[in-house]
Amino acid sequence: MIVCSCTVITDGDIEAALIDVLNRPDAPIPTPGIIFRHLSKRMNCCSCAPVAVETIYDKVGELERRGLIPASVGASARSKLLELNAWRSRLRGKARPETAGEGGRTARDSA
């Protein structure tokens, strides 16, 4: 399955990158940025970020079950990915633009 159509990254690419990244002694949180850099790619429009996070989360569990990454690393990575996703959700909630009022004016323009 293609996860990022801008850079043509598949779930198989993500799986291979996760195996490499998470088997390092100093394994980082496998964020989309870490995985894309490992693949020598850059996010362009970033619309794939939510799908990339979900794919990474799912693949970490799958790789752990298959014994391709250490169980402790898998559990830690999934926990940190959940924290990252919750943090992103909170940020998105705070960054909502003001709604436009009459004539396209915002609440700030009316003050």
How many beta strands in the DSSP annotation?
Answer: 2
Q: Average pLDDT value?
A: 83
List the helices and strands in order. EEHHHHH
Number of domains: 1
Please outline the major beta sheet.
Answer: 2 strands, antiparallel
Shape: globular
Write up this protein.
The chain is built from five helices and two strands, in the order ββααααα. The chain has 111 residues and is mainly alpha-helical. It has one domain. The chain has a two-stranded antiparallel sheet. A hairpin with a 4-residue loop joins β1 and β2. The termini are far apart. Residues 99-111 have low confidence and may be disordered.
What order do the helices and strands come in, and which of them pair?
Elements: E1 2-4, E2 9-10, H1 11-22, H2 32-38, H3 49-65, H4 71-94, H5 107-110
Antiparallel strand pairs: 1-2
Features:
single chain, 111 residues, two-stranded antiparallel sheet, 2 strands, 5% strand, disordered C terminus
Quick rundown:
By secondary structure, the chain is mainly alpha-helical.
